[in-house]
Amino acid sequence: MRIAVASGKGGTGKTTIAASLALSLTEAGTLPIFLDGDVEAPNAHLFLNPTFEKRQEVAIQIPQVDDDKCTYCGKCAEVCQYHAIVMMGRKTLVFPQLCHGCGSCARVCPEHAIRETPQVIGVLERGPARSGIPFARGMLNIGEPMAVPVIRQLKHWIEPRAGQLEILDAPPGTSCPVVESMRGADFILLVTEPTPFGLHDLRLAVQVAHELKIPIGVVINRDGIGDDRVDAFCQSEGLPILMRVPFERAIAEGIARGKTLVDIHPEYTDRFRQLFMQIAALQ
Amino acid sequence: MKIVISAISPDLDSVIDPRFGRAAYFVVVDTNTLEWQSYPNPGANASGGAGTQAAQYIARLGAGVVVSGDFGPNAYNALDAADIAMYLLGTSQTVREAVENYKADQLASASAPTSPGHHQR
Question: Is B82 in Cβ contact with A83 (below 8 Å)?
Fold first, then answer.
């Protein structure tokens, strides 16, 4: 079972909730796997302190055109959805920064004039974290625009054992990297805050989850600030609110020191176990 | 001589669309006769690669000169590879004015990408 922790809005507490949930479930048989899918700015390691033991580069396949074989038929440019390969008169140009590495151009080339060469765009790292949690993260290289292949490979890097839970900390937003983080998850935990900003982006994230047909639960963080419109929205949409974390100075101070909710308030361990039971029941 | 101008509507007196890759229309004008024809930009709403797509379209239209307000790095490199000259609109407001300014040699040519681009995959 995989739970993706997402939010829409950045800074709502996805990583805090994901890390606290993982630490609360370490005594129940198998350890949960923790995946930091926020590959543009991974920071779950600050809460879970992994020791990285393995490293693997993430590459995508970029086309190279053999000008001697190319007949300028334009089939590659026609098939490319990203306009990463274009016909400019009698020149076939490749724009690697636009390429998604799908391989369609090489497949449709009748002259076999396209060879694919790997281009490294990021790296995966893994190792044991606090309480022995198997931890892995993806990191997109600086200047690379495409996070999706890094997240896709991260999801398949550690093979879960039968019944082993995976917790994937998703990036903020609702674009491709978030879709890739949610895809294949059995449950999406949306962390929000009761502000107009939290609500606005929660609506978007809910739409993505609905599109993917994955069940949703909501955690309201910084409960007590803002207004009650997130509550009203969840009620009208039939979204279960599974936890509320109050807006509290002790929590903010603890998080600023790299502590999770279960370190700051040990009673949260039970609350997160109950949260997980509710998720399992909603499956 | 055929030149292409990016435009917000499909005619000779249209206001110029300062964006190249995401221009609404391309108006192709014969500088001698002022005969013109307009084409909707197929990549105006592309999720990505609008610049390269537009450049490829311009190459197919057979124009040797493009006038616009901005050429990103991908569009610039594609147009440059096909030896299509790029000019900046300067003070031109409409397609017709851009043609007149081009003929009067009043337009600056773009010798490098004019913006860092918005490409994202």
Answer: no
Please give the structure tokens belonging to residue A118: 């790997």
A chain contacts of residue B121, beta-carbon cutoff 8 Å: 82, 84, 97-100, 145-146
B 33-62 near A (Cβ less than 8 A): 43, 46, 48-50, 52-53, 55-56, 59
Q: Does B78 touch chain A (CB under 8 A)?
A: yes
| CATH topology assigned to domain B2-103 | Nucleotidyltransferase; domain 5 (3.30.420)
- Across chain A, which has 283 residues, the per-10-residue mean pLDDT values are 96 97 88 98 97 97 96 95 92 92 95 96 97 97 92 96 95 96 98 97 97 97 96 97 98 97 97 96 85
**A45-to-A18, A126, A258, B24 alpha-carbon distances in Å:** 12, 10, 9, 46
Domains of chain A listed by start with CATH number = 2-57+122-282 (3.40.50.300), 67-112 (3.30.70.20)
Convert the pLDDT of each residue in B100-114 to its tens digit.
999 999 999 998 887
Q: Which of A155, A196, A145, A151 is nearest to A178 (CA)?
A: A151
Any idea where the domains of chain B sit in the sequence? 2-103
Q: Would you give the DSSP letter of residue A172?
A: S
Using CB atoms, pick whichever of A91, A95, A145 lies closest to residue B52. A95
* CA–CA distance, B46 with B49 (Å, rounded to integer): 7
Residue numbers in A near B42 (CB within 8 A): none
Which ipTM value was assigned to this complex?
A: 0.85
Q: Check residue B71 and report its DSSP letter.
A: -
**Chain A residues with beta carbon closer than 8 angstroms to that of B55:** 86, 88
**What distance in Å separates the CA atoms of residue B64 and residue B20, rounded to the nearest whole number?**
15
Q: Which two tokens mark B91? A: 């003070």
